């Protein structure tokens, strides 16, 4: 659903700028005399994600602004962050940005965007500078201990590499008698996939023989009792019938088979020490909350104007 809404919004925005009325070199907005070009705005439009349109996830609410407005607001916020960071001596150096670039370019989504020319290296370098500036603003005068870094690393292995993954197949049932029959057929040698097609009540996996695909060991969606049972299996083995209280007090019965296993590939803390330290510190200070407060005060004194047709009134004072 998110993706379809995103595609529709972007299609309208791209239609608006594709008619040749706006040249890429034209000024889209100014922030304290610092210009934002139409080219920057178009690139930001092309790289909006579904989550950029979410106002909140609980309850689920979407922003009412158009894709074009979300993109220009994002660029204005980025300019303000860089200007504030420069003002208070927290702007990252060119050397810091260049040191960060190789790690960022290794991220699959970034590498794909570069390959498909959805973003340029110059745009990526700008984004890295903004994120590093925001980090500096949020964490200034704060610190984190080695033990806190180690604890963060241990809690979040997936942030630094690939945790162990299991390919699971499941038969989901709502009564004990059906579970007994399914287990009996499996023990008699009937292929698990055939039993799943016959018995499972999970319509999403039935035609795949119960195959759920690969799941990370620490996936929050994997119930603890299932994780504990699967940890005892060798590839090809099947759990005893597992059960848990479902919604409305109903019991759910599960039979799970471990189809395959991918070993974890997590670099040791020593190799990612600085990355772990920065991430642990960012979590400790509450993420962007502190930076947002500082930037909101800075925004109040900023001189901002938007030149894009249809958006000129965004920052026009009454």
Can you characterise this structure?
- By secondary structure, the chain is α+β, with helices and mostly antiparallel strands.
- It folds into two domains: 2-142 and 285-306, Triger factor/SurA peptide-binding fold (Orthogonal Bundle), CATH 1.10.4030; 165-262, Chitinase A, domain 3 (Roll), CATH 3.10.50.40.
- 46% of the residues lie in helices and 16% in strands.
- The chain contains twelve helices and nine strands.
- The strands form three sheets. It has a four-stranded antiparallel β-sheet, sandwiched between helices.
- Strand 7 and strand 8 (251-262) form a beta hairpin.
- Helix 4 crosses helix 6 and helix 8 (176-187) packs antiparallel against helix 9 (192-199).
- The protein is elongated.
């Amino acid at each position: 659903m998110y993706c379809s809404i995103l595609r529709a919004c972007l299609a309208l925005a791209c239609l608006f700028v594709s008619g040749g009325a706006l040249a890429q070199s034209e000024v889209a907005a100014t922030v304290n005399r610092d210009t934002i070009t139409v080219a920057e705005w178009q690139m930001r439009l092309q790289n909006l994600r579904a989550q950029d349109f979410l106002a909140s996830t609980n309850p689920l609410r979407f922003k009412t602004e158009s894709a074009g407005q979300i993109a220009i607001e994002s660029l204005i916020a980025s300019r303000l962050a860089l200007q504030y960071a420069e003002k208070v001596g927290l702007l990252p150096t060119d050397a810091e940005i260049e040191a960060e670039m190789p790690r960022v370019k290794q991220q699959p989504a970034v590498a794909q965007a570069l390959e498909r020319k959805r973003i340029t290296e110059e745009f990526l370098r700008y984004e890295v500078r903004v994120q590093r500036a925001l980090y500096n603003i949020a964490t200034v005068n704060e610190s984190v201990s080695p033990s806190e870094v180690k604890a963060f690393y241990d809690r979040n292995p997936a942030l630094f590499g690939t945790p162990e993954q299991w390919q699971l197949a499941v038969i989901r049932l709502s009564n004990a008698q059906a579970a007994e029959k399914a287990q009996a057929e499996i023990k008699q040698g009937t292929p698990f996939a055939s039993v799943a097609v016959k018995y499972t009540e999970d319509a999403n996996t039935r035609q795949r023989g119960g195959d759920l695909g690969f799941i990370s060991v620490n996936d929050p969606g994997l119930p603890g009792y299932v994780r504990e049972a699967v940890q005892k299996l060798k590839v090809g083995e099947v759990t005893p019938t597992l059960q848990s209280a479902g919604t409305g007090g109903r019991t759910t019965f599960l039979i799970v088979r471990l189809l395959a296993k991918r070993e974890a590939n997590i670099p040791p803390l020593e190799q990612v020490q600085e990355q772990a330290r920065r991430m642990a510190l960012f979590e400790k200070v509450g993420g962007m909350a502190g930076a947002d407060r500082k930037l909101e005060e800075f925004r109040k004194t900023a001189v901002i104007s938007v030149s894009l047709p249809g958006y000129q009134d965004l920052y026009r004072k009454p």
